[in-house]
Task: structure prediction
Amino acid sequence: MNAIPGTLHTPKQVADRRVQAAHTSMFVRMLLRAAVLRRGRAASALLAMSVAAAVATAMMNLYVDVQAKLRTEFRNYGANVVIVAKDGQSLPADAMTRVESVLGAKTLAVPFSYAVARTHDGKSVVVVGTDFTRARPLNHWWKVSHWPKTPDEALIGMRAASAVSPNRQPFELTFQGKAIQLAPAGMLQTGAGEDSRIYLDQTEFQNWTGITPSTIEVAANGTAAEVEASIRQLAQLLPTADIRPVRQIMEGEANVLNKTRATLYASATLVVLTSALCVLATLIGWVFDRRRDFAIMKALGASERLINGFFAAEAAALGVVGAILGFFIGIGVAAWIGRANFHAPVVPRLSVFPYVLAGSVIVAVISAVLPIAMLRRVQPAMILRGE
Amino acid sequence: MFPRIVYESFRRQARRKALAGIAITLGVAVATAMIAVATDIGDKINRELRSYGANLLVTPQEDTLDVEVGGVNLKPPSDGAFLNEADLPKIRGTFWHHNIVGFSPMLPVIVKLGSGRDTRDVTLLGTYFDKALSLGKENFTTGVQITHPWWKVSCGDGKEAPNCGWPADDSQNVLLGERLARKLKQKPGDTIEISGRQFLVSGVLSTGGAEDDQIVGSLALAQQILGRPGAVRRVYVSALTKPQDALAVRDPKTMTPEVYDRWYCSPYVQSIAFQLEEVIPHSHAEQIRQVAQNEGTVLSRIKGLMLLVTLAALFASALAVSAAMATAIYERRVEVGLMKALGAGNLAVSAIFFAEALLLALVGGVAGFSAGALLARQIGQSIFNSQISIEPVLFPIIMTIAVFVTFAGSATAIRRAVKFDPVFALRGEG
Result:
């Protein structure tokens, strides 16, 4: 169409122009006119389409992301891998740097060293040297009244406190004849073995006892397979150590995660199916509504293929637009759910888009072709007469 | 006349009514199933979280300090205080006994393993494996198989040794920790000598913890070796608890009687610990914070997630039902035109449609509720291996929602149908 409308408008010129115009334009024009003329119905069909696509997108996004979200929650249970020196051997001095080279600096790894010291009245008590700045984020469940700030401050377990320092006064411990003066900084309460111990800064502990770390507790991120791989890598790097997965933590996590995933999967499937049903109901209505268009096209001699193609193309276009709109809304919904429930946004996943697009187009085309198949048996004259 | 119109409408347009009815049924079924799953998920996940093990530890009140390094307790075995085994069944007599999944007593003793010169000191841990106990008329079993589900017993190289597996609680057989077994080069079916007596190894125990270096036997066996019948060092209790809130952490001594009752009657880990101290004399019960503190967060995250997903499901099914109703009514404009041409008022026409919608909603609601209940049961059975119970109170709620959504979905379509000029409708222009 190179002529400018308005300058050539005698009937002959118009006719000429239309003859010269591309053949496909009729098809496109019918599609566009159908959408423009019945704005209300088209809009409601598009709305149903985009809502369904949005819900589907949000569900799929959530399903993919929720495992990662829950895994971070599960890391609050603490270490899932423990590195212990084998009998009669000690961990190499650079063990911590080796561990971090395998797992990356983001992974929490905390060294622990143990000694049995004597109190002033001859009772035995376990003293542990560790790195408080690392232990704090690893052991979220530790209830600590005050974390030590200076090296001579100690963190004292609830039960140990009543034995060594009942009135929170400074106390003395001896290890192989060497004495050390300590000030209690805070109380530690865990409900488990830690309550009977005294925690010290590693450097201070080493100066006093000369004992180097014998255990490293690691909170390894990732799936079970990834953790297994990290364990194998660590075993190669640290031949003098025993690398053990903490089965209590690993199996509990796997169990809860699998059940949650399965429930979410079942729910997401139900939601997506219901949204598809919604689209089906709306689109069947919208095609039925246009049976007169269908009858006129047939009366004017359009072939079955053309009519099918026309309605299918219309539905497909609706599906594509609906899927794109719905995808963005759905990503927004998923991000909101992530923020509301996990206090961290769900990362938008573009990989979900092809599935949403394909699903939308398939459902749309099915719901357009289905009523056409039913109408095919009816004479166009009957429809045009309004029966 | 009115009932006849409605009746005839259902009789003549059975197929269309069936379509709308199916949409309502499916929508209600999904809504019911999702609500049932969402209300029950907390309880289900709470039970799954028990696979992290016990969340409460009961110890003697006047105990001496544990001196434990690397799983070896250096405290003299007879040192300190003990709990009495005879008091343990009373754990099932506390207020929240239904929430107590299981408990395992532990009694570590240090034994001489081997004979002649080749001896070493090893910890023998006495516990319940799957012990049958009774309190009053109630019989139950409890032990590490319930409270420590990650403990696995293997029979070694696949050759089935006699009596391989978990030992019976009244037997003299023992389990050998995985690493200890490797060190000793012993396998199930072998006998080991402990303190001069021969014991059959009935399996190799793998726990990923300190028990891998120990021998595990029945509690009675450990008491026999220690020479203190009825002694128990500590008890692990696994209980279903409610996530902690502001009330949970308050000190019961400072509460008013009403607040105290509310605290006592809520399954907080703190109140269960308090009740355990009540039934076991001279005991101190404490939450194991690693397990107890985290399960609340995990539980609330999963519950919150399911709530949001359920809202999405309700929204989608409401939309599907509305869409189906709107379509069903929109197709019947000619009928409306005819009725109006014969003198029916807008109110009369709307009444007919609403009556039809109500009928559809009731029938679809009942069918959908039953289908949804089955679906929820199926989900519960396949994912959690346990029933998801449907609260009867859910039925009126679901029916109300079904009727409301059907009406809301029909309202716009009905309004448009009655507003439509009968002349155009009858001429078939629309």
Summary: Strands of chain A lie at 81-85, 108-119, 124-130, 143-144, 153-157, 171-175, 178-189, 197-201, 215-219, 241-245. Residues 247-288 of chain A form the longest helix (42 residues). Chain A has 13 helices and ten strands. Chain A has a mean pLDDT of 84.
